[in-house]
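CHAIN AND CONFORMATION:
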Amino acid sequence: MTIVSSAKMKHEQEDGNPYDYWKDFKDEVRRQLIQQGTKEDLKEFVESVREDARDNYSIMVNGFLKFWRPSRMEWLKPVRRLASLGGVKMYINPEIGVIWQNREIMIKLYLKANESLDKRHADIILALMESELREKVDESVEFAVLDVKRGKLYSYVNNDPRLLILLKSEGREFAEMWRGI
């Protein structure tokens, strides 16, 4: 209940305009991919970030560069969809799409400076992406989540339908608590 209360209070305070701490990072990664920028360009970007966010942004840039490695990536416009999950509406929006190692991949960026993503949580995000976005892309397109801090890419390989049942159930519970607060 505390999580729902916190989320509702934050929603009401932001008045429909949520603050995105990582917006500049996501925009710069997109820009570098679209313009075929270099890793050095991304490193230089950190210097332009406001000072209080520079350390966290530096951690994320270094992690993203682990993922980028020496191979070339081409920009692919990601898909987006407003989905309803058990009465909770949310945008499913991988931030970047790339053609990488002859694969088309839609990638959700996991940006948490103080925690890492594990496979169990990645599978939940990926199951949701697969369920809600598959009809908008070719069958060959892959969905993935990048733990940016660690530069670790999780691909969708778990086809367990119970994950979606669990997500829908939790969505209904969340919506019910939201209305009750």
